[in-house]
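Archive transcription. Copying these from loose printouts into the bound notebook so they stop getting lost. Printout 1 of 2:
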Amino acid sequence: MPAEAAVKYEQIYFNDIYQCYYSSVYRIALRITRDPHLSEDIAQETFLKAFLKMDTLFEKEKLKNWLSAIARRTAIDLFIRKKRNEVSIEDDYLTLADQGERIEDRIDYSLLKEKTQYVINTLKSDYREIMILKLFFEMKDHEIADFLSLNTSTVKTKIHRARKQIKAAF
């Protein structure tokens, strides 16, 4: 098969994948972000990442799970980046002055939150994903279990182990 025909075949194949799985990838992103516009961006980025790494997928039967994992991680990463950009100490200064809070307390809180985010990012990927869903998305254990297709007791165990690692880091 000539190279040009192979490229065209891959494009047709990928278009079929896109048409078939776009709505499920979008729903995963929407469930995490609760933002339709951001979810569309996440879906597009998910398929871009998938297209670039399609050659690493050896078992075509696992395509849906593979795309779901990419979508979850992309959504979580973008959500964290967005939240990190929204929080700034300078913007909080006026709010704090209006509320009568001590600025030092707010700065201490911001530094603690930043340290916690750093420590969470150093956890193993399965612990990190669960802790992000627990802390930043405020999901309950059974919701996390349903979302990640895990047993609730497994989620509880991983949360316990992750918390021990976070405490040890402090």
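Printout 2 of 2:
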Amino acid sequence: MTERVVIVGGGIAGVSTAASLRAQGFGGEVILVDAGEFPYDRPPLSKDFLTGTKDIKQIALQPAQWYDDQHVRLINRTTVTALRPRDGAVELTGGQLIPADRVVLATGGGAARPPIPGLADPRVHVLRTADDADRLRLSLTPGARVLVVGAGLIGAEVASTAVRLGCEVVLVDPVGVPLAAALGPELAAWLHALHDRHRVTTVRATVESFTNRPEGIEAVVDGVAGVHDAVVLGVGMVPSTELAEAAGLEVDRGILVDERQVTSNPAVLAVGDPARLRGVPRTEHWEAAQQDGARAAATILGTPAPVPTAPWFWTDRHGRHIEAVGHMEAAAHTVIRGSFDDPTFSVFGLRDGLVVAGASVDDPSAVRAARRLIDRRIPVVADRLADPAVNLRGLLRG
């Protein structure tokens, strides 16, 4: 019988595991170990928190009272230094052992750092934690010359925030149209072009080196040198698997888990960014981590796992809100609903008369409808899907 669950890491996956355990009726002890003062949400780090319009308490995943109300013991400002599955315990900083019947690894990940010479310069920033954002904010002053490396979700959001703060921003990526696989080539191209319309200079190139100069940090981009006041790396993340590896768990580009989030040791589960279902690429989005937590709780309780739904994510940049669901790369063709000049519009990916993906700009209801069409495998007629006069909810009736 599971009487005590120790969750390692206080991101959305870890907190969701704790919340799901209580919501599903777990009556044993739940301990959440987190390195920070309290668990906080990470998407605001590149937006409201970076601008200073929200402070750390305003992005907390749960208010402080929640942990008491849910009988979740939060051990903060502490890290787990070792797993002792054979001893049924985890080891904390300082050597303290905490007994655990099941351990859930929600260790997240760190910012990827490509092998670029000069990367150790203190003016080169990453953005994974609130501390990272606090340091970066000091550099985002009006007129500051900022180089953002990587035009994916984090890089694009930081570029948007920096230009809004009055910085001169250059955004570099070797890919001509970032996010095309996730959003489709048409929407991805429109989205990337937003940068130029908002005074962000976009460059398709590769950064070769950084050099400390008296006037700033010099970056050589495809052979051309430019001087900047700050550099931000947004080139992905590396899953934190060190604890798992030291404990002898199977690790291969993430902590390998089965469909119930169980690792190669049945006493240990893994959720969120570091977890990878065997044979499937890791999923690093917020909702996926939340769903991992619900599955892990069901596994611990021996109850049916939640029914999987199409993967969903969102991003905000230059005052526009974008959502996407499903697998656009699986689409045989795309259907555009509305016009890219409209205040709101959507793109749907179809294959064999079924919706396999959807993405929208400032129209979350379209993505909610797309998700239902995907999950229920409801056949659609492309012309009706493309017609803004056709109510999407009507298509849900088939």
